Amino acid sequence: MSLEDHFKTVVIAGVGLIGGSLGMSLRQSGTAGRVIGVGRNPGRLQKALALGAVDSFSLDLADASRDADLILLCSPVSQIIRDIPVVLASAGPDAVVADAGSVKAQIVAAAMDDPRFIGCHPMAGSNLTGVEAAFPNLFKLATWVLTPVKSTSERAFRVAEETGRRLGAVVCAMSPADHDRAVALISHLPHLISSSLMRICAAEALRSPKLPLLSAGSFADMTRVANSSPELWRDICLSNRDAILSAIDSYIDELKYARNIIESESPEEIVRFFDEAASEKRDWKKSI
User: Per-residue pLDDT averaged across 101-122, rounded?
Assistant: First the structure.
């Protein structure tokens, strides 16, 4: 693909929220001449077609990949890892293969240093799932992370970079390991906290039925993503195990500190705890 031209054929494996939104955005922006959706469920693929996320669909990833300019793997992480060898064995020498997985080290390793592959993670999403929740502007101003390695071709990097920009995203590059440590803290840990809080409150609501009536903004904010796909998060937790465990340990240490200063009834320490967090939050927002 010339960066001045559009793709003739794009294949999207896994046409859910992310894959469906990519298909819609690629089609509406004129970046793709034809988008083929690939999956295992004909009913879901038919729905993606009806919603305008794809132009056609196939149940055979290898066959669909043969004439594609760009193949985007948007399934859960374990499925992406299984699909990579199939795609790389079928795709042409000039094709570019990228993924949208939330964990990068294991996915990039599965590509076995093939120069056509580049790890990619669009930092956009929703608590909703499925192609029904897809929309073409999902990636506007979102961070489009690329994780090139030494074997990644310059062409693959440039194509993935330009694709992100055409979809309105802000592109940044980092190593797979750095990416996985970062998302363990800013994405994976918050999802675990959200689900844990939801489980605690649901158990308490059995003893106190009026508890849901008292829940308001802070509870809604904290548990917004508790309704995410269990299969997706199973794969993420298993694929980014060490970084997630480290993030959990850091969070437990911080909670223990908060517990200690509350237990000791130290007003000054409690104020300092919240004041430091508020100051860090203000500085964080300035850095974005």
Answer: 97
For residue range 12-39, what is the model confidence (pLDDT) as tens digits?
999 999 999 999 999 998 899 999 999 9
The boundaries of the domain holding residue 87 are 7-174
* DSSP bridge partners of 103: none
The answer to whether position 251 is within a domain reads yes
CATH of the domain at 247: 1.10.3660.10
